[in-house]
Amino acid sequence: MNLRELLRLIQFFNSGGYVACPESDPPSEDGYCPGEPMGATG
Question: Which residue from 8, 32, 35 is spatially nearest to 22, judged by alpha carbons?
């Protein structure tokens, strides 16, 4: 695992999860965006 991957993992952890966002502008490097999935219950 390189530093870029580790920082991305930390970003997802701190945001509460991740969601697919293949059509984001600008596009994400891996097709996912930080944030909780729609319909998630706590």
Answer: 32
